[in-house]
Design a protein that fits this description.
Elements lengths: L6 E2 L10 E9 L6 H16 L3 E8 L5 H11 L3 E6 L5 H11 L2 E7 L7 H10 L5 E11 L7 H18 L10 E5 H7 L10 H11 L4 E8 L10 H21 L1
Parallel strand pairs: 2-3, 2-5, 3-4, 6-8
Antiparallel strand pairs: 1-4, 5-7, 6-7
Length: 255
């Protein structure tokens, strides 16, 4: 049954184990894409971490069959834990809640569409040997599909990156890629200051990491543009995200 806060947990978690790695995967109506993504991540990281990793799927107000798809995968793979929220809380909100229950010394979040595949996320995890935070950089990597993003999307992306770099002063090439990894201790330094729960979540996190002088590295990754089923609505989400930078800038100056 859902908890009073609208959340529920239908996985069998049992006694908490010591974990080296937690991978958080937010999911909003991802029935058609999340199954293969989970299988790939389980196979890759089981080989590397044995039983000392977990994948925390955060069901974020899903109204399709995502819950049933994830339930099937969780029966096969005990590494998969699930928390569910009846009402959507935004991408950033889902990641925040996933990190709140994550047990790993290292934590990461990835998209359910497998835009950045498991071997590439492994690169982020390895980069934490010498960094506090590792973020995927698509613009220095390779697009696997061989097909470019639509011109309009490229123009919006370029303008957004210019704004972020010049208005927030962030020295990163790709702030919005849905694959990032943290030392858990670094995340909890940032977490109390993070207010954004939507698409601006990444900017809020990186602005506070930059303010705290945490060591953030960018890692070039192979990636694929996944248009079908995308939850990004450029004409709505981009202006809202850029508007949120006003609050982020104000907060980082006051903190």
């Amino acid at each position: 049954m859902p908890a009073k806060d609208g959340s529920s947990n239908f996985s069998s978690v049992g006694k908490a184990r010591e974990m080296d790695l937690s991978i958080v995967m937010p999911a909003y109506n991802e029935a058609g894409r999340i199954g293969p993504t989970l299988r790939e991540y389980v196979e890759r990281f089981r080989h590397l971490y044995s039983d000392r990793f977990e994948i925390v799927v955060v069901l974020n107000g899903c109204v399709d069959d995502t819950r049933e798809v994830v339930r099937i995968e969780a029966r096969i793979a005990p590494e998969i834990r699930v928390i569910e929220f009846q009402q959507p809380m935004g991408k950033g909100g889902a990641i925040w809640e996933g990190f709140a229950v994550a047990q790993g010394e290292l934590v990461s979040f990835v998209d359910a569409d497998n835009m950045v595949r498991a071997p590439e996320v492994e690169k982020l995890i390895r980069a934490l040997d010498s960094a506090d935070i590792a973020i995927a950089n698509r613009f220095s990597g390779v697009e696997e599909s061989g097909r470019n993003q639509p011109l309009l999307r490229k123009l919006i992306s370029g303008a957004s990156r210019w704004w972020v770099r010049n208005f927030l002063g962030l020295p990163y090439s790709d702030t919005q890629c849905g694959a990032k990894a943290f030392r858990a201790a670094a995340w909890w330094q940032i977490a109390p200051s993070v207010r954004e729960r939507g698409w601006a979540f990444d900017l809020d996190v990186l602005a506070h990491a930059h303010q705290l002088n945490l060591n953030v590295v960018e890692v070039p990754v192979r990636w694929k543009h996944v248009a079908e089923g995308s939850k990004v609505r450029p004409w709505k989400d981009v202006p809202l995200t850029l508007w949120a930078t006003l609050g982020i800038r104000r907060r980082t100056r006051l903190d």
